[in-house]
Specification:
Shape: globular
Oligomer: single chain
Strand content: 5-15%
Radius of gyration: 27 Å
CATH superfamily of the largest domain: Sodium:dicarboxylate symporter
Structural class: alpha/beta
CATH class of the largest domain: Mainly Alpha
Strand order of the largest sheet: 2-9-1-10
Length: about 575
């Protein structure tokens, strides 16, 4: 029997391909089809053991469960388990082969296509349908040459491809929402602050790619013309903001992943192992947003506009000006912005419903939950990890935290231990002086099982649910919560939102209603950021302590911390 196959490829790494693949497997199974998941190449330290032996990505194990199957090595024939920022253990058909440098794997991965097609052939002969999950995005530079995970596989296996996208900025831009929002911001600004509004709007507009060039620059000229000021000065202010937005913004824009890929290829001409993340200069971008707004406004007002001289409106061609640009927002645009605002306020409406149903105490309890989570995480970082460094490693605590500040910042912004792994390894080796052998083993292992912050969070969430729903807990229940929270945290993947999945395990054991998850989900991201920082800090602290005990640390690196 030859199966039908469908491949899901995404516009990015976090658009939900894994969840959608699992959902399609479950739907097909419920409709009476025998279905199996498949991912040619995966990269994760969160592996799952197969009953017949071998290991595959945990996502494929979940998809197998949705399909009603036991996990099998054919569902993920090639698995990469990162060990350092530039090496990974290669697992083929469930068995570890050897560690490879990133450059070597990129140059020779096409040789693994035979193993991929072998597994795919066995699945297609055994099942009615095979749902294939791609890796990352086919547009990513590192997934093009010699590709076995996306279009390279799709062409070799002759399978149809469905592109999975997360609807967000793209829809907002094409629908005109962002254009209307930019016009509303600028047209509604007081005359004395119009230059500041134009420059700031230009910077922010880069979140939606080229919308600033299309909308804001001519709008800046039109506004200045309407105010009796020189239109070229308004266009210059808008252009300064839009151009500055390529290196400054409050959010990671659509161009940043592309620039990261280009930069990485250029950097690898000097260092083949050098990697560049899309978030590499995010903190610089945030600070630059306000700096460029101030400088761009001052330069436009006090240098550019005076140099242009007084504007003579009689010399302007009135036919050139687009009157519609200066018109107040149309009723349709206002309606769109209004409904967008209503959608944004939907979260607050849900919070109001919670307050009306369970009383204001429920919201107060949520605030306490967030506060206790942050307090607990700070105590773990400062007292436990600080004590480890001071009394076990006998190293300066201040120098330790200075050395891992990059990893803490990235972990807080991404809420993912796995995404932060390369930065943590770099900080441990370059800033703390930990040897490569210790860092690659301890930190990679820690990214999988060291979930102190998550364990504390699961315990707090359980107590929160018991409080709002009036569940009485015995001493035995408290003991059970501590055990299950610890074990559940170890089993949680190092990705955002993983703690929510493990809550059901703990809640069900002590009789806390699962509806608690719905309440906690609203503040999960805020808490996830802090507990991830706790986990990552712990990985670095343990690696440093182990390195001291084994004599594999260069304390001079910690003192200098030249990579900070």
């Amino acid at each position: 029997m030859t199966a039908r196959a469908l491949m899901l490829q995404g516009t990015g790494s976090d658009v939900g391909k894994s969840v959608l693949t699992a959902a399609l497997c479950r739907i097909a199974r419920r409709r009476g089809l025998s279905v199996a998941p498949f991912k040619p190449q995966n990269m994760s330290n969160n592996a799952a053991a197969c009953p017949t032996g071998g290991e595959i990505g945990r996502a494929q194990a979940l998809q197998a469960r949705a399909a009603g199957l036991d996990p099998h090595v054919d569902m993920n024939p090639v698995l990469l388990k990162p060990q350092t920022d530039c090496t990974a253990q290669l697992v083929v058909h469930g068995k570890a082969t050897h560690a490879m440098e990133a450059a070597d794997y990129m140059a020779n991965r096409d040789q693994l296509m035979g193993a991929v097609m072998e597994s795919f052939g066995r699945l297609t002969n055994a099942y009615d349908l095979v749902i294939v999950e791609g890796a990352g995005s086919p547009a990513e530079v590192n997934l093009r040459r010699g590709d076995i995970a996306n279009m390279g596989f799709a062409e070799a296996a002759a399978v149809g491809v469905v592109l999975v996208a997360m609807l967000g900025v793209g829809v907002a831009e094409k629908s005109g929402l962002l254009s209307a929002a930019v016009r509303s911001l600028v047209l509604g600004a007081p005359p004395k602050l119009v230059t500041v509004a134009i420059v700031f709007a230009g910077i922010i507009s880069n979140t939606a790619s080229e919308v600033g060039y299309v909308v804001l620059i001519p709008l800046g000229g039109a506004i200045y013309y309407a105010l009796g000021r020189h239109p070229l000065a308004g266009m210059a202010a808008a252009f300064a903001g839009v151009s500055g937005g390529y290196s400054a913004n409050l959010l990671i824009g659509t161009i940043d992943p592309l620039l990261a890929g280009i930069t990485e290829e250029a950097a690898q001409l000097i260092d083949p192992d050098y990697t560049v993340l899309a978030t590499a200069n995010w903190y610089f971008m945030v600070a630059s947003t306000f700096l460029i707004t101030a400088i761009g406004s001052l330069v436009s007002i006090y240098i550019v506009e005076p140099q242009l001289g007084k504007f003579d409106a009689s010399k302007a061609d009135p036919e050139i000006l687009d009157e519609g640009m200066m018109q107040p927002l149309q009723s349709e645009e206002k309606k769109g912005l209004r409904w967008a605002g209503i959608a944004m306020l939907g979260v607050f409406a849900l919070m109001a419903w919670v307050a009306g149903t369970l009383g204001l105490d429920a919201l107060v309890s949520l605030a306490k939950l967030v506060g206790l989570n942050y307090l607990g995480c700070l105590l773990i970082i400062a007292l436990i990890y600080g004590s480890m460094i001071k009394f076990l490693a006998r190293l300066p605590v201040r120098d330790f935290f200075r050395g891992i500040v990059d990893a803490m910042a990235v972990s807080y912004s991404t809420a993912s231990s796995n995404a932060t792994l390369p930065v943590t390894l770099r900080c441990a080796e370059r800033n703390l002086g930990v040897s490569n052998s210790v860092a690659s083993f301890v930190i990679s292992l820690g990214a999988t099982i060291n979930m102190n912050g998550t364990a504390m969070y699961l315990g707090l969430a359980t107590l929160f649910g018991a409080q709002i729903f009036g569940v009485d807990l015995s001493m035995g229940d408290y003991f059970l919560i501590s055990i299950l929270a610890t074990l559940g945290a170890v089993g949680a993947a190092g990705i955002p939102g993983a703690g929510l999945i493990m809550m059901a395990l703990v809640f069900g054991a002590v009789g806390v209603p699962l509806e608690t998850i719905a309440f906690v989900a609203g503040v999960d991201r805020i808490m996830d950021m802090m507990r991830t920082t706790t986990n990552v800090s712990g990985d670095a602290a343990v690696a440093t302590t182990v390195a001291v005990m084994t004599g594999e640390i260069d304390t001079r690196e910690m003192i200098s911390a030249d990579d900070v």
